[in-house]
Specification:
Two copies of one chain form a homodimer. The first copy, chain A, is mainly alpha-helical. Chain A has six helices and three strands; from the N terminus they run H-E-H-H-E-E-H-H-H. The first copy, chain A, binds a DNA duplex (30 and 30 nucleotides) through helix 1 and helix 3.
Chain lengths: 125, 125
DNA sequence: GTTTACAGTTGACAGTTGTAGTCTCTCGTG
DNA sequence: CACGAGAGACTACAACTGTCAACTGTAAAC
């Protein structure tokens, strides 16, 4: 897992992370709850548990003001890049190329995607 | 998860799957054990448990001869494609393109990889 | 034929995850 | 200032995972 992270981020926890990643600033529990209660149908208690676990794992920082405010300690890019690397290691023999090759041969990409990617490869080196 | 699969394939179970995927034919427990005991440092009991769980999940077929022989019920491609799609859904907003873009911008690919991929995109349509 | 050596089955136990309730404390409102 | 709502801390509990041991057959070896 990403450095400084004790244990993986689970599926449910990831939903919380995504919210924090896309927030402008730190969020209070109330704010987190407002977003997730409806979106995911979770009880307040569940949301608190998930946030606490993320704090224990070192994925989220807890900052005391009137009330605790929470912000991500690891970035979406950092986590994404770890998760992708993990997938590549576990399933594609460590070859990122194989992953992309599999994508290209699968339903995963539309013709338009392929077009775009081709463009990307032209520009980057 | 892939169709016909009851529950995810866990990390340890995946090691068994990989062995079965790369085997020429079905393998007996003995053969599975021979490979994994050393490679992973697992006790025979552990290996048996993993295989049994895979059978329950419908990921592996059990075929009685003198002794049971095991073979995959879902293919590596099928599973890889599901796992990749799952990653894309959970982390890349459903966009395979975003995943590849992230890869291109990360350490994940060497210059040679990029070269190869560029070639791939030239050939495919 | 008795022993040995596994195959197969069942049980086990601790840690993680999904989901949530309870108890206490504090703060804003009447 | 008493009260109610929500914050924070702790507890709960079933399912899944990582590991493995014990028991029960059976088949090969002596």
């Amino acid at each position: 897992m990403p450095k400084d992270l004790a244990g993986k981020i689970s599926d449910s926890e990831l939903e919380v992370m995504k919210l924090l990643w896309h927030a402008e600033a730190s969020l209070s529990i109330t704010e987190i709850r407002e977003h997730l209660q409806q979106a995911k149908g979770w009880e307040p208690a569940t949301i608190k548990t998930l946030v606490s676990r993320l704090v224990s794992k070192g994925a989220v920082r807890q900052e005391k003001r009137n009330v605790y405010y929470y912000s991500p300690l690891i970035s979406e890019e950092e986590y994404g890049s770890w998760a992708t690397g993990d997938l590549i290691t576990r399933l594609y023999n460590g070859s990122a190329r194989d992953l992309v090759a599999a994508l290209v041969h699968s339903e995963g990409l539309t013709k338009e995607d392929i077009e775009e990617l081709r463009g990307m490869f032209r520009v980057e080196e």
